[in-house]
Specification:
It is a single chain. The chain is 26% helix and 26% strand. The protein is of the alpha+beta class. It folds into 3 domains: 80 residues, 2-Layer Sandwich (Uridine Diphospho-n-acetylenolpyruvylglucosamine Reductase, domain 2); 121 residues, Uridine Diphospho-n-acetylenolpyruvylglucosamine Reductase, domain 3, CATH 3.30.465.10; 99 residues, UDP-N-acetylenolpyruvoylglucosamine reductase, C-terminal domain (Uridine Diphospho-n-acetylenolpyruvylglucosamine Reductase, domain 1, Alpha-Beta Complex), CATH 3.90.78.10. A 5-stranded antiparallel sheet has the order 6-7-13-11-12. A 4-stranded mixed sheet has the order 1-2-5-3, covered by helices on one side. Helix 3 runs antiparallel to helix 5. The longest helix has 19 residues. It starts with a helix and ends with a strand.
Length: 316
């Protein structure tokens, strides 16, 4: 690894810079080798300077929040990881709209806004990532997506310049924002007034559902595959029986009989088939082995090409 760009980063940035830092502890999968360098910025200025420096040196860079939607290669990441956290977690509260730093965890924002009697984000309480990551991937849960509450996004582009984009100018898609190679630094979010007690009760219901229906407390990345664009219809299994529609990736994986499949330390969760969990000591290669097996079986049995929701980092 060339030390020229890392030395320049150390001189230019006030945040913490670590070299050859293992990424496993920073991801919910607890999987992944080291990054060449990891910068935890103390503000937007660090991000601007870092992106400009590594861009000039031709060094790849990656944004990491709580690491909840990533599978990092066993060999790690050759480049700079920008670890967005407390240095970009400030909140400016308005009446029905707040400006929220990208590093704030979404569950904390959901609870905080609900206590203020503001609804919308409260349905995202089970999304285990930061606001910046949620905006960037248009995360969603319980019929709610980030794009429904975003008014504008402030970001640093690939040239190290700060831009602001209105929500109407962002090409939102299912589990994607289309923002491109940028670092989200804050977002202006709008809320719907509601009763604090009712909102907090709804949060409790969502968390009970998630705890009962997903491997909430196990090492995983959340949903591995995107839901198919259109449902798959299973033919009826006898006279008078009704056909059945499979609308989610989890239903498809369950239908092909791969719930509980294990490779190494990784397993398709018996609780929810769209979660691949790290049972302890799993490698990225173990998880990829399961991903490949699931995709192949879904293609053979239903002709469905399952798309990944999890982001692959490096070459797992």
């Amino acid at each position: 690894m060339s030390i020229a760009w890392t030395a320049e980063l150390r001189r230019a940035c006030r945040g913490r810079l670590l070299l050859e830092e293992p990424l496993a502890p920073y991801t919910t999968y607890r999987i992944g080798g080291p990054a060449d360098a990891m910068l935890t910025p103390d503000g937007p200025g660090d991000i601007q300077r870092a992106v400009e420096i590594v861009g000039r040196h031709g060094v790849p860079w990656l944004v990491l929040g709580l690491g909840s939607n990533m599978l990092v290669a066993d060999a790690g990441f050759r480049g700079l990881v920008i670890h967005v956290g407390k240095g970009l977690a400030e909140v400016t509260e308005g009446a029905n709209s707040w400006t929220v730093g990208a590093g704030l965890p979404t569950p904390l924002l959901a609870r905080r806004s609900a206590r203020r009697g503001l609804g919308g984000v409260h349905r995202l309480v089970g999304v285990p990532g930061t606001v910046g990551g949620g905006v960037y991937m248009n995360a969603g849960a319980h019929g709610q997506e980030f794009r429904q509450v975003v008014q504008s996004v402030t970001l640093v582009n690939a040239s190290g310049e700060v831009e602001q984009r209105r929500a109407g100018d962002i090409p939102w898609r299912y589990r994607a924002s289309g923002l491109g190679e940028v670092v989200v630094i804050e977002a202006e979010l709008r809320f719907t007034p509601g009763d604090p007690q009712s909102l907090e009760e709804e949060i409790a219901d969502h968390l009970r559902w998630r705890k009962a229906g997903t491997p909430f407390s196990e090492a995983c990345c959340g949903s591995v595959f995107r839901n198919p664009a259109s449902p798959v219809t299973l033919p009826s299994e006898g006279s008078g029986a009704e056909s059945r529609e499979l609308r989610t990736a989890g239903q498809l994986i369950d239908a092909v009989g791969l719930k509980g499949l294990r490779i190494g330390g990784a397993e398709v969760s018996p609780m929810h088939a769209n979660y691949i969990v790290n049972l302890g000591g799993a490698s990225a290669s173990d998880v990829m082995g399961i991903i490949d097996a699931v995709r192949e079986q879904a293609r053979r049995e239903f002709g469905v090409a399952l798309e990944l929701e999890v982001q692959l980092v490096g070459n797992p």
